[in-house]
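Reviewers asked in the last cycle whether our approach scales beyond single polypeptides. To address this, we selected a multi-component target totalling 600 residues and predicted its structure end to end. The input consisted of the following lines:
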Amino acid sequence: MGEKLLMKGNEAIGEAAIRAGCRYYFGYPITPQSELMAYMAKKLLKMKDSAFVQAESEIAAINMVYGAAATGVRSMTSSSSPGISLKQEGISYIACAELPCVIVNMQRGGPGLGSIQPGQADYFQATKGGGHGDYHLIVLAPSSVQELVDLTMDAFDLADKYTNPAMILGDGLIGQMMESVEFKERKKIDLPDKEGWILTGCKGREKNYIVPFNLDPYEMEKVNLKIQEKYNELKEKEVRYETVNLDNADLIIVAYGTVARIAKTVIQNAKSEGINIGLIRPITLFPFPEKIIAETSEKVNKFLVVEMSMGQMVEDVKLAVNGKAEVNFYGRVGGVIPTQSEILTEIKKYLK
Amino acid sequence: MKKVFGSPKSLTKVPFTYCPGCHHGIAHRLIAEVLDEFGVREKTIGVCPVGCSVFAYVFFNCDMICAAHGRAPAVATGMKRSKPDSIIFTYQGDGDLASIGTAEIVHTANRGENITVIFINNAIYGMTGGQMAPTTLVGQVTQTSPYGRDPKTMGYPIRVAEMLSTLKGVAYISRVALSKPAYILKAKKAIRKAFQSQIEGKGFSLVEILSTCPTNWGLSPIEANKWLEENMIPYYPLGEFKTPEEVS
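The resulting structure, written as structure tokens, was:
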């Protein structure tokens, strides 16, 4: 039985990161995740062999993470949508260099300076690249403060296992709310040895170098192919999702994060009206759970994708469904959170 | 027969690919000699920039990492915080450090990060074909100042050494040149002081090295050295701008 605490989402991420062995945090304040930064400051500044740096910008912060990750330590940065935009070049470098690190995005309404309330309009940015070049982040989408804890700790393991940056894609709501969390005992997993490539000074060996660049296009192509192999492995082995009430459902909601929580209430409310709704909740957004969606589209012919965006994940759902069922979309943007009743009203339109 | 000169251990045996008359080769060698003299090659990590010296990772015989344009001081910060016993240096040009990287260099200096920055100031952007740099002189013709740098629309050249030396966290800042042997000897002394200051944990150190770019200046190597002495040194005076008292 682990330790149970009542924690605010943003702070729970910080505590989880520290328990996962992260001692190096570099960030810049931005609403709605500044509490995470403050928590890391309070904790890390009192610890040995650690560093907390409030960097001059989000760009500097991600580059500090790149440097620390190159020396083989677990390191992390966090921000919200506009700040994550700033980090894209750095993330591309980290992915090309095949370094592990964790990036937390507590999404807010966009585009531009947007709003400070929750959004899910960074899905494309998170899952389709965001930065230049062919690479992907491992993207995890928590739906509760407990999941913020569990997935943050998983993110460090996955990043190390695949030597690839990982992102926690949360939002302003989940970061601000307080829920009971348990810090459970975690199973130790086998992680690859870092000794062959980390930069620690070349004593006793040839020099190592980390250079995300090659003037020879055939060599650069090889780099890309090597990275893609990792993504193929991720797609085979690391897909995660939750399903609710798929059997006999007349319509399947596909939603992640905060919206999935709301969807679960929609399912309960619909049941009391005699309407049978199911939910597929992706937990990994990359790799995307296309198989379960494809399989379900053989049995149920209506999907409603609900997002706090103008429609981003819906495209991946349509690709997975591949024309076998009807895929509709409902969204609210700018920081607006959809209510259970408006979602149910929308669902009823498709069940007439 | 006594061996009086050789290639430093801190350089690889790969021949430099820099242009004839380019001072990168001299700067690389001086840094490598200092690392050898202090015996710190095996705990040194260098950060190379975007620019002609992106290839520094090929020439230096120590752990190296390539940073995004301008971000080397931030990368160095992440590394030094993680491995405080390492010797970390960045090697940056005038676009990397004084244009896109201005925030990073100012804040890394301001935090007093215990790293050494080697700043190659050749008043032009080399790798990309000769555009104006923040350190290009007034009236100097470049690809993006084809009628000469006009301060009214393009601003005045930035004196980085002086500017950074106003920050309290800075331990050692000096400006040197490589256009003649006497200057080269002084430059090596400055680079030594900078690394010594890091070894002694004194704070941030930077050596601004006035250098030539014969290819993009459109001059021969010898003409370029002359141009540097007649035009750059009057505007960018040589000397030490900040020293901790104890670094001798």
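Residues 241-350 of chain A form a domain with the Rossmann fold fold (CATH 3.40.50.920). We regard this as preliminary and will revisit it once experimental data from Aim 1 are available.
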